[in-house]
Design a protein that fits this description.
By secondary structure, the chain is an alpha/beta fold. The protein is built from 24 helices and 18 strands.
Length: 656
Amino acid sequence: MSKLHKDLSNAIRFLSIDAVEKANSGHPGMPMGMADVATVLFKNFLNFNPNNPNWLNRDRFVLSAGHGSMLLYSLLYLTGYKSISLKEIKNFRQLNSICAGHPEFHPGSGIETTTGPLGQGVANAVGFAVAEEVLRERFGPKIFNHKTYVLAGDGCLMEGISHEALSLAGHLGLKNLVMLFDNNSISIDGPTSLAVSDNYKKRFNSYGWDYIEIDGHNEKKIFKALKKVQRAKKPTVISCITKIGFGSPNKSGSEKAHGSPLGENEVKLVRKKLNWLHEPFIIPKKIMEEWRRIGSAGKIKEDKWRKIYNKKKKQIDKIFSSNFSGIFKKEKQSAIKSSETLATRKSSEKILTALNEKKNMIIGGSADLAGSNNTKTKNHKPISKNNFKGNYIHYGVREHAMCGIMNGLSLHSKLIPYGGTFLIFSDYCKPAIRLSALMKLNVVYVMTHDSIGLGEDGPTHQPIEQLTGLRSIPNLNVFRPADTTETIECWELALKNLHTPSVLALSRQNLSPIRKVYESQNKCSLGAYEIYRSKDKVDLTIFASGSEVSLALDVSHKLATENTYSKVISVPCQEIFFKQSKDYKNNILNETNYKISIEAGRSDTWSKFVGEKGLSFGVEDFGKSAPYKEIFKDFKLTANEISNKTKDIIYKNKIL
């Protein structure tokens, strides 16, 4: 091992050790163990430019083992990224520092994705690799031709999402995807043998991956393995046999180096053993200059690439900046004219058909439910191994990986991914959805069969608490449209909200149109709006979403025959409504003393609408297996039941 390599690797180790020690919190073991691999990668193979972290054709480096975040921050600082200063390194894990406990995505920072929940970065990396293949096919290998490297640990490979994502990656033959497996055989509880006895080679080979095993502290073997994957014909994992906490006399190779600082005395011993005789956070000038030289090499590569890119820039910009406004206007006019009764999942298919008539950046998909989610249209072409000309991914029954991969597709460039499954399976998707919201990504989750209205499949498939759970996630818009027109408007908002992911909760059962007249305004952009009033002066406000808006209208008509007058408010998106002006919200919420809500699910989020005196009609127990109209009747979600109970409560409280 050369002295230069030792010095460069030790710079990573000791920045990581010192930052964790100063914070008195963190995971020093992984950066110490993987410093040799990271040094060879960044020094000899990774194409990147710290002066332009957003270079489209850069190699992506994803740290899935996010607990080892100081490895990434050290590399970014040493190679010259302006986002990571020595001051930020010293403020590791402190309030508002970019050097957070686990990597958090910041555009243009060099931090490619938010990781921490183990395995998420693996799925993101698959998304990056798919995006690279798609864009290379569209624009040519001189514009897009780069690698995605993902550093994963034992924990990432234990998580189920890794199996889903790696299986699909092998199926698609993503040859530019490389996993650096930190195979140190240690987890927080101790040796991984406590819980795992997998044969990793057989596991990866069964996925269709190549498998290379090396000594992760041998510079020449690391170089040879990375050199080999530059010509790979399939995705490759390099299993790096490393020692966690490398250089620590008393804690290396054990869980003691995993989740806590080494301690002052042990740090002194590490410095002595690795012959690093420098004060904390001090990197000798010659070592720093060499790291900065490594960082500056990418500018020459990007400059050469940019000469080719500029010749196609107009063509690329045209596709990247697709404008869908005209399509939405046309589809709304058509929906009003046809006045067709449709399930909103079918309404969604109609707008998707129109959106995909011309080449754009939308990439669709479904977790083996395309025929039920209506996510695949006649204008879609599947992406497959050796054929990335398409715009649709068959994810298979891999909901969790689908969502993590979509995050990667969105992060890679300006691709707009959407993927479908049943709303009940949002529970499988939740960690990735949460990260979409945290990273402010334009990802669309198409989730059909949105209530007990799906009928005979029964309580295992009927979502009850899922809407409430999703609505509790910050920076996530949960749309539940009531008819075709609202579905079109919700899709328009989902595509325009560039920094907020969206869930489209769509019905299985057919719904009658509630909007009869074309209006250019996107009313769903208000979050909630008045759809009907039975008299100028009203006594009652009825709030509803999705399929229950029609039921709310029936209730309003029935009450009117008995001299109780109401207005009906369609609420396609609660999150957007509460961002409206105070005056608008007051007008919607406070015109009447008495309010009710109707939604075929848990009623938790409706208290903000109906208040203490109000009444929410919903489903507070699991569903049942039967035709959907019988289930609604069994749960007393009928116009007769709701109007009678509403009338009783109104009179009892002497509101009229």
